[in-house]
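Session log. Operator J.P. requested a structure for one protein chain; no other inputs attached. Running the standard single-chain path with token output.
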Amino acid sequence: MKKIFKVIPLLVVGLAAAGCAGTESEDPSAAKTIMATRTSTVTYAAVDDSCQHDYEATQLVAATCTEQGYTVYTCSNCGDSYTDNFVAANGHTYQEILVPATCTHKGYVTHFCTTCGYEYSDTFVDETGHTYTDEVTAPTCTEQGYTTHTCQTCGYSYKDSFVEVLGHDYLEVITEPTCLEGGYTTYTCQTCGNEVVTDYTEPNGHSYVDTIHPATCVSYGYTEHICSACDDRYVTDYQQPVGHSYLDIVVEATAESMGYTRHLCVVCNYSYLSDFVTSGDTGYVEEEEPKPTHEHKYNLYVQNYKSDKYFIAISACLCGSTNAGELNIQLVNVAGETMQLVADEFGQVDYGDIYGDWLVTIYDENGEQLTMFDLSAGAAPEVPEEPETPGEGEVPETPEEPDEPSDTEQPETPDEGDEEQGGEVTEPETPDDGEDIETPETPGDGEDVETPETPDDGEDVETPDDGEDVGTPENPDETVDETEEGGGSGTAIILLIVFVLLVAGGIGAVIFLKKRKNKNQN
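Structure written below.
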């Protein structure tokens, strides 16, 4: 019975709390008005007086939005406990959030408790629905046509009313092949401008017609190759001039005329006179003593033509004679790669197929080092990727044209007394027909010799085969001056060329020494 009396107050308190909770869950908006106040103090006394209870507050439970607060008292002697000092629930503290309606979602008001997070929604509003605008896209050669419906409110869109593609309307243009470039067919769409190139054909190649120009006494011979389709031209098979083949015709001196020797070329009819003599002489004028034979002393000269990617390496003498010689040209770069180049017959060394910086060393045929210099061949060009083209076949590569010889000029007539290596024909300079001729030397011993008169008409005078008349020079001194001026001009030109080569070689040597010095310092 004592236990029943203890339980009855707890049942009463529990029923009262349950009633409050049920009422709040049914109407959340009325939660603030529910107040349950229980301030009565419950006192228990043991019937059998077995324990004199000594209760103490052992737990304080705070009130929440939906639950009341209370205090738990526990007996320190036997552990018996009870609940008392009830506090009413606090109720929710709501904040209202308005969510507007959209094209596809309803609008509503959300009530959110800022204390415990409980929420509920009401005041619902229907969706507004989409407001569409229509845009028609016409079909093209490669794309379908369609209509786009776009909502002005939310941006949602969809497409319908599709139309098939139109397809290309091609115009065909055929490009015929040439000597160097292949042919092909270009299809261009007249609607959108799209181009497709197909049907490639190989280049026709050159159709050369060979014309042989034989060598003459003073000019080179060669073979000329001219393409009949595109007029491309190159020259090969150079031949040295054959030189004059002279027939010596001696004209004896008479009392009225001067004697001489005419040297007539039987091939080209070129002629010149020499060995003039008067009738008072015992014989022909003695020729001057021959000049000492010139011994060539060759020095190596190097001239770089960077823009054309070649340099000239040739040995030249002060007299103007040149000799390419057997040169061993070695190249090495910073990576240790080596390469050997070869000079052609004119001393030209082509380096168009190499790139980067190289150190060039030139040796003679005996292995002796002649010179060393730095050579910059430029950076290698980037090879563009070839675009893909529809159709079969590839564009053929352009064939390389043969190199033309670097010297196609006709040789100059050599000066009298000079002999060049290689078997070139030499002949003395002589006055042309009609010009003043050199006066023969006067005999010694102080004797005066009169100038012979021109032979009268009707006298027999032996003449050259070409039928030209030879007259006595009227002003011998002036002729000698002109001859000397011609020889001086030729010598001056040769000296000027040698001077330019020496200056170029000196500048190259200074630049090379500076670069070598900088490398040694580094």
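Operator note: The chain has a mean pLDDT of 74.
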